[in-house]
Amino acid sequence: MLLEKILQSQGFGSRKHCQHLIKSGAVQIDGQVITDVKFKIAEQQLKFQVFAQQYQYREKVYLALHKPQDYECSHQATHHFSVFDLMDELLLNRGVQCIGRLDQDTTGMLLLTDDGQFLQALTHPKKHVPKVYIVETADPISPIQIEQLLQGVELRNEKGIYAASQAEKLAENKLSLTIHQGVYHQVKRMLAAVGNKVITLHRQQVGLLDLGQLEQGQYVYLNEQQIQAAKNQSECIEYLG
């Protein structure tokens, strides 16, 4: 592939700007400055430097972000910060999108990608990717409420029964809840349906990809094994951070 096209695909700007980067001597491969805009090189496993900064070629990008509170999953945030404010400009140029959304007051794992097929695979209603939430509640969690969450509850304006596949009490006012659907405000509405209220909500896990020790506001590129862990339900858990 032409080097200018590689740079453009990685988010370095327009074709004209990428040509300017090459002509000005800003691009190096294996320590060699490349000034030929028609320079061709295989993109697989390619590493290169722009202004002495190291980059790796990625055909598509897959990211896991530890979303902080008071951030919206929108490019045009209205009342809070945008999660895209936490992203590198190159990623924004690539058009990365959130895979699903977290409310502004919800923290935890948010996946992003510029791979449309991957996005659809994780958000398709038939996929039923498990998501694990840590929930702090206003009132103590009762055994009856745990049983109701596992058996399923009705949600207003939604069809069917919504049940947790796992509900474990962690403390008097804290539980771990695993759901497979993703309707609007589902966890908050399920807790309301059993007579409780969510105070704080944190998503710890998507598929078998666990947030681990990744700090709030930080993101990482997923490797192939972690990408599969995000999609799968029956392999080993992959931890981040």
From TrEMBL:
Function, as annotated: Responsible for synthesis of pseudouridine from uracil-516 in 16S ribosomal RNA.
Membrane-spanning regions, if any?
none
- Outline the extent of the RNA-binding S4 domain: 1-64
Q: What is its EC number?
A: 5.4.99.19
Which SMART domains does this one have? S4 (SM00363)
Q: Which GO terms describe its biological process?
A: enzyme-directed rRNA pseudouridine synthesis
Out of the domains of life, which is the source? Bacteria
Question: Which PANTHER family does the record match to this protein?
Answer: PSEUDOURIDINE SYNTHASE, PSEUDOURIDINE SYNTHASE FAMILY PROTEIN-RELATED
Residues spanning the signal sequence = none
Keywords assigned by UniProt? Isomerase, RNA-binding
* Protein's recorded name: Ribosomal small subunit pseudouridine synthase A
InterPro entries tied to this protein: PsdUridine_s_RsuA/RluB/E/F_cat, PsdUridine_synth_cat_dom_sf, PsdUridine_synth_RsuA/RluA, PsdUridine_synth_RsuA/RluB/E/F, RsuA_PseudoU_synthase, S4_RNA-bd, S4_RNA-bd_sf, TruA/RsuA/RluB/E/F_N
A GO term for molecular function: 16S rRNA pseudouridine(516) synthase activity
**One Pfam family this sequence matches:** PseudoU_synth_2
Which reaction equation describes what this protein catalyses? uridine(516) in 16S rRNA = pseudouridine(516) in 16S rRNA
Top enzyme class, one word, equals isomerase
